[in-house]
Structure prediction request, 291 residues.
Amino acid sequence: MLAENAGESVVIQEEAAEPANEGTAEAPVEPPAPPAQPVQPTAEAPSESPAPATGAAPMAQEEPTDPPPPPPEEEPTIVHRQSQEQLAILEEMTLALEGLANVDDAFRALMADHGLTPERLAAALVLNQSAYAAVAARRQADAMASAASAAQRNAYRQCRTAVVALRKVARTVIRDEAGRIAVGLDEPLPTTLLAFAAATAESLDAAETEPYATLLATVGYDAERIASLQALLAAYNLLATQHRAALKAAERATAARDGAVDEVRVALVQLRAEVYALLRRYPFLSTPTGF
Prediction:
């Protein structure tokens, strides 16, 4: 039955599909609608949020903003070894002397009567040149002190490293308390430079005596090696002495520079006072450069 009905259904469809206008006046017959195909189940798409019922446009999502720019980098602080204020004083004196050397005739005619004599200007020039020389000398003294400090640090590091190694090895063979006290193994090495040198000298002198010399020789610290350590300590002491002398020389050079610049400062104040007084008395004069 099902098969027959299905065949009849096919025949009907084929007949209906043929055109109906065979010379008759009858209106064409509309073909029947094709049978509905079964709908395959499909996965549902995720439902979107319904639009607002009010008819207003949905709010746009905010776009991510750019991160704030990094803060500006601070310029490194420059530490000058030479006072910039002192150099400015010397430069001002240089400009003032150049200006007084190139004044017009009207100004020059009145200079001697107001204390601005050639001898005074020459003396101010000597002061300024001496101050510049003192600045240069102090820079050289500072450089020598820096070099002596570096040499001392290097010698101290080498000497201390060698002494620490000796102490560690010596403790393996000098085990009694009296021996450790004699060789200076019972206390830590001093941290100050002078105290370190003194304590090391005492330990090395004790290491040359018996029975410690024999014990240390068994672990590689014979008389020759102890002597090399003493030479290393002597070199350190020499460099430390030179370093202290260089520091003292730098202090003296600094004091000399400061005194020379102060003399220029006073002379500059005096020259300016004379020039400004002259300009107030004679307003028609031209102000020299540097004032």
Notes: The CA atoms of residues 180 and 186 lie 5 Å apart. Confidence is low (pLDDT under 50) at residues 1-33, 38-53. Residues 223-281 form the longest helix (59 residues).
